[in-house]
Amino acid sequence: MIPKDNLILIKNIQIYSEDRFIENGYIKMKNKKIIEVGVLSDLENDQDYQIIEVPNGYIAVPGFIDVHIHGVNGADTMDATKEALDTMASALPKEGTTSFLATTMTQERKEIEKALINAGEYMKTQADQGKAEVLGIHLEGPFVNAKRAGAQPIHHIIDPNVSLLKEWLALSNHSIKLVTLAPEQPNGLEMVRYLKESGIIASIGHSDATYEQVVEAIEAGANHVTHLFNQMKGLHHREPGVVGAAFLHDELKAEIIADGVHVRPEMVKLAYKQKQREGLILITDSMRAKCLKNGTYDLGGQEVTVKDGKAVLEDGTLAGSILKLGQAFKNILNYTGCSIEDAIQMASVNPAKQLNIYDRKGSIAKGKDADIVILDHNREIFMTICRGEVAFHKEDDIK
């Protein structure tokens, strides 16, 4: 039986709230929102609530936000169907993700447009019941540099085109929130300026930009870097490149795929030491093969082989990941020695602030969306709550 007004109470929980750590606390939720966070000894009026009690020592952290994810569990944003986005939204709570940007990739124009239209329509009608929320679209390509294509099909790469972007914004019902582009390409800075004026995140990625070109992009309004280290001009003592610029400029928030494959643990630690917790955003950049068995899968019309935790194209190029955001959370703790508060900053706070939605997501606080992840002693996902609905419970999953 669903309680009146969807009243849910989590008790006996260690809480990493927005402004403090509560050793033995409670969280009250009503109609998708957090209405009270406090110390258990102060709890009053728990009648009519569905009570969730968890084992001693389990912790509550804010829901994870993945700003760069292509697919999961056999579905991909580029499938351009409601069913694909439903599959993604249903699967992601299992890894602690409570909201995400549906991410496109470089493809022929009509295929990108189908995906944009579909995501825009989906956002208007997406169900609230126990699923991760699609916050918008991350347009990754086609405005990138062919020299740093990676798994982006080279024959569909084009120069930045503001007129085309305006058409795509309209088609998507203005759902594009982040655009990955190479600012050194013709019209690149013009697009960065337009994105800045439009309140859209301009991200430097799949880019061969020099340090000076990145600085120009920052001055034009760029404030984000797509999957740091991967498919960009690397750090060199005579040419700092995109990586060096990311290290030196606090204006840039940098995504990182902390899977130990795309970026080895020592380099994740180096990035953390340079950018600190305020400067990094954990992402998955995952593809449809995540949660599936080893085998051969499709990525933008290209054949991808997944084996032993690694996804590669025929020529051996890494092709997205099969990383789960909950695992990235654990990895960043292990790779860097950072605190849980630091990991929360990178998995929840920073993406919410970057997307300008920190007023409603990214932390556990009164008035915010009831997006909560409960972790067990091993920091594995025990339960995920999406906007006040239990979306994943490990015990149910085992059954």
Helices and strands in order, then pairings?
Layout: E1 8-16, E2 21-30, E3 33-39, E4 50-53, E5 59-62, E6 64-69, E7 71-72, E8 75-76, H1 82-91, E9 97-103, H2 109-125, E10 133-140, H3 162-171, E11 176-181, H4 188-197, E12 201-204, H5 211-220, E13 224-225, H6 241-248, E14 253-256, H7 265-279, E15 280-282, E16 295-299, E17 302-307, E18 310-312, H8 325-336, H9 340-354, E19 372-375, E20 381-386, E21 389-393, H10 394-398
Parallel strand pairs: 1-4, 1-5, 6-9, 9-10, 10-11, 11-12, 12-13, 13-14, 14-15
Antiparallel strand pairs: 1-2, 2-3, 5-19, 7-8, 16-17, 17-18, 19-20, 20-21
Helix pairs in contact: 5-6, 7-8, 8-9
Please give a structural write-up.
It comes from Neobacillus sedimentimangrovi. Keywords: Carbohydrate metabolism, Hydrolase, Metal-binding. Belongs to the metallo-dependent hydrolases superfamily. NagA family. By secondary structure, this protein is an alpha/beta fold. It has ten helices and 21 strands. Helix 7 crosses helix 8 (325-336) and helix 8 crosses helix 9 (340-354). The longest helix is centred in the N-terminal third of the chain and has 17 residues, at 109-125. It starts with 7 loop residues before the first strand and ends with a helix.
